[in-house]
Amino acid sequence: MTHTPETHIRKGLSAGHALFYVLCQEEARLERMLAEISAGHYGDDRPLVIWTSAAGFRAGDADPQPITDPLEAVRHVATGQREAFFLMEDLPAWFDSRPDLVRALRDLDKTLAGGGAHVFLSHPQLLLPETLKHQVFPVELGMPTENEIAAYLQGAIAGGVIPAQTEEWLSTCGGAMRGMSLYEIGHLLRRLARDKRLRLDDALPEIIEAKSAVLMKEGCLKYIGECADIAHLGGLDNLKEWVLSRKSLFTRQAMQSGLPLPKGVLFMGVSGCGKSMAAKVIAGTWNLPLVRLDMNLVLSGAFGAPEFAFDRALRVAEQIAPMVLWIDEMENSFGYDVGATGGNTNIFSSFLTWMQEKPDSVFVVATANRIEKLPAEVIRKGRFDQLFFLDLPSDEERKMIFRIHIAAFGLDADVFNLNLLAAATREWSGAEIEQAVKAARIRAFTEGHPFGQNDIIWNTARMVPLSRTMGEQIKALRQWAQTRATPASKKAEA
């Protein structure tokens, strides 16, 4: 049987549980779900009874009962004779300040044991006191599944919100909407219809923009809108071949066929050699959204306890999959240190476990500049599919990098002496070459003359590359990677 919130609730009912705690962001969706389960459980159309502190009890077309105090509401359920589903929305918000309410719920569980009434407590967060943990049956109502979204889209068509759409539109847009609530999808559909943006090519960017806003509310996740074409990656041919050879695995057809998907890749190497660009290239080549997990925000406490914020971010990533999850400078983000204890270590352990058990549709791109700061568990087989070492670019790769950045200014790179430029930047990183070209372009503009290779040479003569200031560290990094990592480039420079 497929594990869904509905099947989980039915298991709880079969086991005779009277109290349920539902982690829920969408009350309307939960209300519809419980109404459907109630009809099957009782075999009739008795209405779901809903309580809120603002309106009291309401059930179908019956007159509401304005019992708004939470303790009185629980007592009302306990003394009533009605066999029904009672949904008490946001009741857990009072647990901290009302110990009498917690006691009343424990008594209610005894009263309803073996009876026909069932109480569902709902709240977006788990606010369960220790004294209630053994009485309630927990359920998490995550983001809508693709099947739920598909049914919602059909309902929107039947209700006249949007006109009939093709199977391709329904499949593509429905998949792209994963990670959004039905409430958010409803608003998006009305906006697309109003603005006449329902054509597939118009709708997809709008959906991605809407998902970006959804992620913004999560705080620790950021949607990266501008992914890169693989042609914008200078050199790194081994890495490019690896990415291209797996492109077809992330098509909808391949995912539905049950093929095993790659879990993730770890990029290590010299700073400025294309690790971040490679993350964008993977997402762009595979036509997947790229989402960056900001570990600084996770650890800041701004979005709750770091362990909670991290777990929440990973759950959201699973819900919006398929996608690429990017974790930059992992050795700093997780703060791993030998013998360390506390929150960061717990988060790191959680990440390793999640990498082993996560859904295949979340592909992780992690980067590290100081690989020696990471424990052996990270790089063992099974965590990541491949560990790539990105070294300083070779002569040919530097020519390619110069060509890319010169062309970015709308100039013909063939009029530049790329051999000369490559020779002048031996042991330079791609980021340093990019900066040299940009600085040269600015110099030419401010001095009022056409941009040429002499401007680049002038700037390179005045820049000190990282290979000169951090030579020993780079040498040690190369020695470590020699027998432990796959070179991202086909041929290293002698």
Description of the structure:
The chain has 4 domains: 5-141, 3-Layer(aba) Sandwich (Rossmann fold); 146-218; 230-390, Rossmann fold (3-Layer(aba) Sandwich), CATH 3.40.50.300; 395-463, Helicase, Ruva Protein, domain 3 (Orthogonal Bundle), CATH 1.10.8. Strand 2 and strand 3 form a beta hairpin. Helix 3 (70-79) runs parallel beside helix 4 and helix 17 crosses helix 18. The radius of gyration is 28 Å and the shape is elongated. It has 22 helices and 13 strands. With 494 residues, the chain is an alpha/beta fold. Residues 338-342 have low confidence and may be disordered. The strands form 2 sheets. Strands 7-9-10-11-8-12-13 form a 7-stranded mixed beta sheet. It has a 6-stranded mixed beta sheet with strand order 3-2-4-5-1-6, sandwiched between helices.
Major sheet details: 7 strands, mixed
Number of domains: 4
Q: What is the structural class?
A: alpha/beta
Sheet-strand content, in percent, reads 5-15%
Poorly predicted ranges:
338-342
Average pLDDT works out at: 89
Main-sheet strand order equals 7-9-10-11-8-12-13
Tally of DSSP β-strands: 13
